[in-house]
Amino acid sequence: MILRLLSLLSAMTLALVVQTVSLTADETCQSPYMPKITGQEQFVYVWTLGMEGVGDESDKLVTVDVRPGSKTFGKVVNSHSVGGRHEAHHAGFTADRKYLWAGGLDTNNIYIYDVHTDPSKPKLDKTITTFVADTGGAVGPHTFYALPGRMMITALSNDKDNSGRTALVEYSNEGKYIATHWVPTDKDPRGAKIEKVADGYGYDVRVLPRKNVMLSSSFTGWSNYMMDFGQMLKDEEAMKRFGQTVTLWDLHTRQPKKVFHVPGSPLEIRWAWGDDANYAYTSTALTSKLWLIKEDDKGEWQATEVADIGDPSKIPLPVDISIGADDKTMWVNTFMDGKTRLFDVSNPEAPKQIYEKQIGNQVNMVSQSWDGDRVYFTSSLLANWDKKGDQNDQYLKAYTWDGKELKEQFEIDFVKEGLGRAHIMRFGSSELYTG
Questions:
Q1: Least enclosed by CB within 10 Å: which of 203, 276, 355, 428?
Q2: Domain residue spans in the chain?
Q3: Residue 180 half-sphere exposure, CB side, CA atoms within 13 Å?
Q4: Is the dihedral of CA 330, 335, 336, 340 positive or negative?
Q5: Contacts of 391 (CB under 8 A, 6+ apart)
Q6: This model's pTM is above 0.85
Q7: Range 2-432 classified under CATH 2.130.10.10
Q8: Are 346 and 330 in contact, with CB atoms under 8 Å apart?
């Protein structure tokens, strides 16, 4: 009865959002349960890793003004340090978009910011330091994904062996622990159909409510993501400890249904937005492939490799991806060569690269506005994986896209500004809270 009620409430919430909110300008990777920014985003929040010898050396939330015509356009207008280095990584809004949850992969701390009282100056509202104990041993809070009244969090590891064996975790919007859902393994499939292997690894999570589907992807555990990148590449055992699965879940019951074999560490998951578009993409970091997860004509979900990203033999290391709101194009960043590539995905089963641009010596995250006119990039992957010396550029870069070329609007050098390593971005706007 409770699960049926949650299912009904989820459907009602989504219907209300779709009916009342104008989808005109926002990041295209956000939860469908969240209100969208109408018009121009005003601020970009950058969750930033502290860097030894740079500024206060601590992780921090950096606020950048992106209001056209503002005297501080393209400038940092606020920075809040959490003290210490926690391997700041990903962040996500609650479904009402009033709070931003941000996590540390090393210490497992979760920082909840009030971003609605004054969007130009987010205020730390609460810190959760009990994630491992709450969850029964999950480690490395990664993706923070909004569901009605609660936050779904993917973890990357566990406190038993520091491998990639991990779980999905739910908290209420108020920060109260609700449940842990361990990712299926060969030994404990939890009722899921297994294509080839179930490694139990985790990374990203995204949902398609009208199909009652949730997807989670897989990466690697604490023992790898906290290791020096060069050292890890030379460690044969470490290189075996990467995920090779995408798991299909029943959204409302949290029951795993199927484990797809997607070798090469599938990272970000992005659903298409069309009303009848029953498919999502992921990219594999180690094998440089685009994969399509799609419902077939019989109602069965399948995972298929559909395109190369760059030259896979050179291991460009695909990281973040961003599908356009019209489902026709998708940006794909590759960390090692510092490039972004634009794919034509109008035919979902045959993506074709149509553009590329050098963004920096390294590039990680990409966020595009809902209208596709503005694209933002940041640089940091992980503190021990970022490049060294002169190759370690750390930045936020903003571009306009006219359909043919990316044209730079501004760049902020995060090292020169004493901020650190720029990682994930989220858009903010005061218009969401002023009616």
A1: 276
A2: 2-432
A3: 16
A4: positive
A5: 361, 362
A6: yes
A7: yes
A8: no
